[in-house]
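Exam prep: given the inputs below (a chain plus magnesium ion), describe the expected output before reading on.
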Amino acid sequence: MNKDVARILISEEEIRNKSKELGMLITEEYKDKKAPILVALLTGSVPFLAELIKHIDLDIEYEFMDVSSYEGTESTGDIKILKDLDRSIRNENVILVEDIIDTGRTLKTVTRLMWEKGASDVKIITLLDKPERRTVEIEADYIGFTIPNEFVIGFGLDFDQKYRNLPYIGVLKEECYK
Ligand code: IMP
Ligand code: MG
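Solution:
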């Protein structure tokens, strides 16, 4: 185990099993609909996206978008688009793929953006959900794991851009950020 990890919250195997479950669920729910376009939010969602798509048996496409909060105006929920989509999503069924929903501001804004771009449907899938931290009203349609209010790293989640490569979700030792 990495020396900065206080404890493992979700193991590699649990993540793999849950991703399979969610992939099969999406396959079932979209089998008679237009295959969805997965829009993954960089950078944290990449490992989850890679695990999930193996288990979606549909003609899906995936795209990336990168957004960041405006410094100083975080409470407004405004975000800056660092990388926009490379294709139109007009009349498409979009599934937003996120690593974690914390305050909910990012997804609230990105969801609105997807509707503005003309998506016919917008759903959300997140590996982790921290409902205690929510400041805006937003709920995912597919949730991997609901977790307590602790700072987690691994499987795409970072602290200062590090630990994204850990194969599990762990709680970061307090001494690493205090
Ligand atoms: P929010 O829901 O707009 O507050 O932002 C969610 C984003 O905050 C995620 O995509 C992560 O990048 C980051 N984040 C929130 N909680 C954690 C955590 O516990 N560990 C690592 N990143 C986190
Ligand atoms: Mg993120």
